[in-house]
Amino acid sequence: MREISICVSGVAAALLFLLSGCQGLRDPGGQAPDGPIVQPAEAAPAILNEGAAVNRMITALSIQCNPLFAASPQPPVFAKEFSARSDSENELPEKVLAALTSMRLSRTPRQGEKADYVLRSEIRDASPKEGKDCRVWTIHLVPSGSNKSLWEYSLLLEDKGQSSDPKGTLK
């Protein structure tokens, strides 16, 4: 008998709680605001110095192309196609490729071994729409024997005339 009274008391308490505790969850009425509540911010792309650009490119390649690097037991071999105005600009993709090799995401080819992919790098002057006083660095990852790009990434480099931070931090 005592168990029944405890059970009835518990059910009564739960029913009282449900009926009185949910009043605040009901529709408060009124009109919902029109349009977005928070306006999205339009961020301008960062113009990076050469050190930060190399770091960003290494990060983008290693994260976004990770399934490609892990698809075979050995890391892929990359051929290089770099087009830039000067040898110093061609050092940037060389640094990216060297970092990928040191992270064991790429390897140097053995004697007579064919490359699995072509790493194409292009550095050109930016259009007025892209940014003033900067260059655009684009890297494409293309399978050997194909012209179809599997992956592409572009970023803005500060112009050579600007001062650069040797630590490779963002502006």
The gross shape turns out to be elongated
Distance between the termini: 77 Å
Stretches where pLDDT is under 50 for at least 5 consecutive residues are 162-171
Task: Report the sheet-strand fraction.
Answer: 15-25%
Number of strands: 5
What class would the helix/strand composition place it in?
Answer: alpha/beta
CATH class of the domain at 47-158: Alpha Beta
What Rg, in angstroms, do the CA atoms define? 29 Å
Major sheet size, sense and barrel closure: 5 strands, mixed
Number of distinct helices: 4
Can you give the mean pLDDT?
A: 79
Second-tier CATH architecture of the domain at 47-158: 3-Layer(aba) Sandwich
What do we call the CATH topology of the domain at 47-158?
Rossmann fold
The helix content, as a percent range, equals: 25-40%
Strand order, largest beta sheet = 1-5-4-3-2
User: Could you spell the SSE succession in H and E letters?
Assistant: HEHHEHEEE
